[in-house]
């Protein structure tokens, strides 16, 4: 029953965005840009400013990269035996490897593990954003006819303000800089508004996704990788790395999240089979209503 209470507020907020998009009709891309470029940097800044730098940062980076490349290797093996094209392989990577730990995983971590879990989830969200903005965009570009993956990936990282917020937070923490109370209150207000805003955005994005031309075999393989193999690999990393129980649980929980909504935008931008990627995003998010309670139960939440 506890995990139902954890997920209920999350899906209520998703539902607000979904209904608002269906009834009123917003432009999710513009609102998403606002959250990414204006609000998320403040959340990243506050997280790194108030949390002491420790080895968990390194362990989360090792975990994030290890999980990413481990899942990519699995997709390549499947693609080899199934004789998928380059475009099909890239779309499988986009739908199977990158998890929605931003506007889904982070609030679930907050409701499940409190402030301590939320801070760990935000740190990993920033690491995952960097991975998605490089490796994710590279494979989206690779799945198209244009050969510009490395350049586009580099430019995406340079333009990503969330990284600059994190770096500034680390610097000001290390030099022990203290803000006047009124200024820090403004930072707090923007940071607190970020998570519910991006949750509403996900609801809007889901309302714009349609299930067309379903490729059931590939979708089934992608969902197996996403909901079974990904948590298993994450569990191996979680127990191999010397991390606390909270960090270990966050690692496993994040790996069980549905497909990241950003991958749909990447696939659309580079025409890397966007219908397939968006279909997996929607189906995996709906399936998470069942899979996440199971995962939270296994984790003892």
Task: Annotate the secondary structure layout.
Blueprint: H1 2-23, H2 28-50, H3 55-82, H4 86-96, H5 105-142, H6 149-158, H7 161-174, H8 181-208, H9 216-240, H10 245-255, H11 262-270, H12 274-298
Shape label: globular
Percent of residues in helices comes to over 70%
Our count of helices gives: 12
Sheet/helix structural class = mainly alpha
Transmembrane segments: 6-24, 31-49, 61-81, 93-114, 120-140, 152-175, 195-211, 223-244, 250-268, 280-299
Subcellular location: Cell membrane
Protein name: AEC family transporter
Membrane topology: Multi-pass membrane protein
Account of the 3D structure:
It is globular and about 60 Å long. By secondary structure, it is an all-alpha fold. α4 (86-96) packs antiparallel against α5. The protein is built from 12 helices and no strands. The chain has helices at residues 2-23, 28-50, 55-82, 86-96, 105-142, 149-158, 161-174, 181-208, 216-240, 245-255, 262-270, 274-298. The model has no long low-confidence stretch (mean pLDDT 85). The chain has a single domain (1-295), classed as Na+/H+ antiporter like fold (Up-down Bundle).
Give a nutshell description of this structure.
This protein has 301 residues and is mainly α. It is built from twelve helices and no strands. The longest helix has 38 residues, at 105-142.
Supply the key terms.
mainly alpha; 81% helix; 0% strand; globular
């Amino acid at each position: 029953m506890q995990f139902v209470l954890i997920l209920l507020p999350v899906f209520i907020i998703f539902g607000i965005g979904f209904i608002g998009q269906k009834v009123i009709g917003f432009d999710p891309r513009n609102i998403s840009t606002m959250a990414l470029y204006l609000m998320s940097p403040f959340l990243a800044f506050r997280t790194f400013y108030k949390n002491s730098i420790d080895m968990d940062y390194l362990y989360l980076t090792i975990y994030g990269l290890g999980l990413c490349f481990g899942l990519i290797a699995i997709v390549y093996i499947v693609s080899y035996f199934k004789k998928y094209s380059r475009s099909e392989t890239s779309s499988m990577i986009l739908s199977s490897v990158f998890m929605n730990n931003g506007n889904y995983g982070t609030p679930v971590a907050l409701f499940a593990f409190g402030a301590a879990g939320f801070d760990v989830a935000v740190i990993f969200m920033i690491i995952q954003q960097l991975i998605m903005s490089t490796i994710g965009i590279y494979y989206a570009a690779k799945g198209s006819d244009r050969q510009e993956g490395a350049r586009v990936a580099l430019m995406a990282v340079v333009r990503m303000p969330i990284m600059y917020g994190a770096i500034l937070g680390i610097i000001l923490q290390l030099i022990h800089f203290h803000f006047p109370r009124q200024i820090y209150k403004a930072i707090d207000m923007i940071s607190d508004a970020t998570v519910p805003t991006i949750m509403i955005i996900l609801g809007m994005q889901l309302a714009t996704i349609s299930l067309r031309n379903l490729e059931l075999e590939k979708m089934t393989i992608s969902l197996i990788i996403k909901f079974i193999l990904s948590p298993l690999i994450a569990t191996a990393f979680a127990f191999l790395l010397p991390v606390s129980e909270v960090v270990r649980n966050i690692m496993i929980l994040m790996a069980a999240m549905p497909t990241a909504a950003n991958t749909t935008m990447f696939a659309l931008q580079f025409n890397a089979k966007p219908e397939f990627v968006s279909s997996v995003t929607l189906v995996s998010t709906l399936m998470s209503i069942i899979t996440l309670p199971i995962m939270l139960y296994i984790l003892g939440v």
